[in-house]
Amino acid sequence: MAIESLAALMDAGAREDLFEVIVRSDCVDRGVTREASIARMTALYDAIRRARSGYDPALRSRSGMVGGDGAKMRAHAQSGRTICGPYIGGVLAQALEMGESNACMKCIVAAPTAGSCGVLPAVLLPYQERENLPDAAMVRALYVAGAIGQVIAQKASIAGAAGGCQAESGTASAMGAAALCYLAGGSAQAVCHAAALALKSLLGLVCDPVAGLVEVPCVKRNAAGAMIAMSSADLALAGIRSAVPPDQVIDAMREVGDKMDVSLRETGMGGVAATPFGQRVAEQMMENA
Amino acid sequence: MNLFDILGPVMVGPSSSHTAGAVRIGRMAHRLLDEGTPVRADIVLSGSFAATGCGHGTDRALVAGLLGMQTDDERIKDSFAEAAACGMAYAFSRVNLAGEHPNTAKIDLVGASGRTLSMTASSLGGGRIAVVALNGLRVRFSGDLPTLIVQNRDLPGHVRDVSDVLARDGVNIATLHLYRDHPGGDAVMVIEIDKAISAQRLDTLRAIRGITAVTFVGAQEEE
User: Is there a smaller number of Cβ atoms within 10 Å at the N or the C end of chain B?
Assistant: First the structure.
């Protein structure tokens, strides 16, 4: 049986490790053994790593708008001139690289969607290297991230067409925040509040892709989502809690999504898609179709 | 949604609905035809598939699926060349299929033996798909579970015949849906089951009077 609320997750997680709660739920949900479940999640983490090494800075997306920024950011991260420092610079680079790989038809892992595929790798891969963590720990954190996404999908949505970018980037960021908080030894309560803090920070974000493509502003929003995941995890680890209960934050996200005009839900008709620049790209794409 | 609907699919970008979902739609048609790579495919793109499909590689993704590729195959972007190499002819048209989900494709296939298949399927988001029409009949199934599709004359006793054969293999039925055009006309049974059925049992089903076609597709997930 799937986990239905963050309250249920916090409750179960107060008695036993979150990973144990979630892996058991997955076994029941899909009718598989514990070994099969963990093997599949391990394969997924391997796929994330393969996706990272598949990045090619020379590639450009179909529209030509996207490509090469990840490499620029990586060079800057190592330049000694960063505002955020080399570690966060590396996180930003990873987020952009994954988003660009996606836009350029390379293989990625949707988490929870293809457009937001850069957030989780950006916060997890550099953290594993810095902390020298075994893969098994990262796999456990993926279960935690997945469970957060499951609850959000169930109570609200993870699709930009339904709930705007807050549902995609917001969910990805919440998943990343929860995974980081878990890896750093946060309690189940801290984990769920980290997710809620991230979701709140991206509440209201619209889905406004130029020409309807998963390129602009999607790729760069992965960098923003990763930053908010990290800051939210640190807030929660400091003992700071979301004043609004985590499940109610998800309910609010759904409500905001329902109220969002259709032009701001992945139709390519509002926001940055409706700017003169956005309209010109859309016209060019139609001419080339 | 299960845990691996949230984490995954492992896929070639850029869009889970317009690229990965499109690969799965093509692959589902390939598997339903059940005789390898088709020799001809006529593909109708509808709604958002027609409008933004080009930028998302929906066309190349559908062809890749028809060639049997999975969502994570990096040859997807070169699928037109692959199709030429495999001898599969294909043609696209853009028509609005009224009343269908915005991300829908209708695919008509001809196999090497002359066998034909007509399938309409929608991409629902996150890479999940639903087949909504099969050989002219309305249906609805996802292919997430092993799925048995039995086409038959709409006559009494066929549900019993089929469930009897499944029971002999100890196969549990998860869901069962029946569709027909009119009483006594063409009917289709879509049965989602918990494990694969043996080739021998499929032949047993095919031998039953009144059953015109039996197709089995295993669970569509990348392990």
Answer: C
